[in-house]
Predict the structure of Inosine/uridine-preferring nucleoside hydrolase domain-containing protein.
Amino acid sequence: SIPVIVDCDPGHDDVFALWLAAGHPALDLRAVTTVGGNVPIEHTSRNARIVLSVAGVVDVPVAAGASGPLERPLVTAEWIHGENGLGGPALPEPTVPLDPRTATELMSDVLEASDEPVAIIATGPITNVAALIRARPDLVPRIREVVWMGGSTERGNATPYAEFNALVDPEALDLVLRSGIRFTMVGLNVTHLALVTPAVRARLADVGTRTSAFGDELLEFFCRTNDEVFGMPDGPLHDPVAVAVLADPGVVELRRTRLDIELVGTETTGATSVDFDGMLGREPNAWVAVGLDVDRFWAGLTDAVSRLA
Ligand code: BDR
Ligand code: CA
């Protein structure tokens, strides 16, 4: 199985990314790190610990990272995720403790301890990965690849052309793209295929565990806010699609291309520029998700959840 670190900002869809990474037999979840994103870092760190506790995943260290972007003030998304970031269910006290290390320290320790390169899956603003590369460039060869949920080949969801994670910390994304680490972007163009339809919800609820019941309460809230904000009552469950790239190769179709991030635009800051046609004449530097086997994706997620508590 592939050793992975999940860097996240839970966030309803981040929860399912964590559960997919923890429950899928093809992945070996070595650590979880958190970042300020959907809600401030105090909430995302606590939320990660809560949802791992609910799922019975008590042996994976969780460390807090950056409270905000490298160079900008934090923008949050309470209107989708609620004030505490996990609107919907009553939240139990986490049994999983907060690791005393910083995210950079925990990631570094995991990379150094592993005898094979470790993949990093980032499902929030990519600040912590950028901070790690800055602090420990010597560890770059130990990073197998970075798979990130964010960006889009098309339109945005935070501004007309910027997706939320890209908009929050574009400088971090730019730094990661320049690092030379293998990079995969899983953007809205594909995550908007991972729609939580009533049938998907029923299938997950049918798992019949503590974890699936908690997940169902999350999805009820998430679908309601997505309906209110975007007119999408079948909310797109973005973040686990990035995990699926590694858990089940082939479930997400990838295309090699040039990817750049707009750092300063009058209207387009945070827009991802995906040069499929090579118009800019620059070397390809990334893989970009362009398709999703929707049924296989939900089957894998449902199966992973069924392996948890
Ligand atoms: C991304 O933004 C966040 O609100 C979600 O958790 C996801 O990572 C989607 O644009
Ligand atoms: Ca997220």
Notes: The radius of gyration is 17 Å.
